[in-house]
Write a structure and sequence with these properties.
alpha+beta; Sufe protein. Chain: A; four-stranded mixed beta sheet; 6 helices; globular
């Protein structure tokens, strides 16, 4: 790696850390959705993260509103915040694709370019932001923190009241 490439990589890492810290300290959509069409509670017994995800999906299958509230580590809270921002106004089917991309980014199975290739180009900016969660791949126990909100969302959409990282 050239010196310039290393500086760029370090700058990107710092930007990602800033983004996670910002969402962890100032979570967006930290509430319950009024008139939610689904609700699920997530639990990570390993570290104590607990989250409730609520969503309102319209008849066309589009997220009208998505929110999450709970207690947990900065990564879990940041992930929930970023998830709710990314999914609003998207079709549920696309939201499931975003889940798959985030899951694979967090586990190190794909990189940002591959994640972008999985999704509509209109989501490139969101994937750039969500890629900051991919740093957890270096700390396998933290993957569950980053993906708990996403698994809880899937449980919500699938009509399951509970999600846990025990199965992840």
């Amino acid at each position: 790696m050239t010196a310039l490439a290393q500086v760029e990589a370090d700058d990107l890492k710092a930007l990602y850390q800033e983004l996670i810290l910002d969402h962890g300290k100032n979570p967006r959509n930290a509430r319950l959705v009024e008139h939610a069409s689904c609700t699920a509670k997530g639990n990570n017994p390993l570290c104590g993260d607990r989250i409730t995800v609520t969503a309102r999906v319209n008849a066309a299958g589009v997220f009208e509103d998505v929110a999450a509230e709970g207690k947990g580590c900065a990564i879990s809270i940041a992930s929930a915040s970023m998830m709710t921002e990314a999914l609003k106004n998207l079709p549920v089917a696309t939201g499931r694709q975003v889940f798959n991309a985030v899951q694979q980014l967090c586990t190190g199975k794909i990189d940002v370019a591959a994640a972008k290739a999985m999704l509509p180009a209109t989501l490139n900016d969101e994937i750039e932001k969500l890629a900051s969660l991919g740093g957890v791949k270096q700390f396998p126990v933290r993957v569950k923190c980053a993906t708990l909100p996403w698994h809880t969302l899937l449980s919500c959409l699938d009509g399951q009241a509970d999600a846990t990282t025990e199965k992840v």
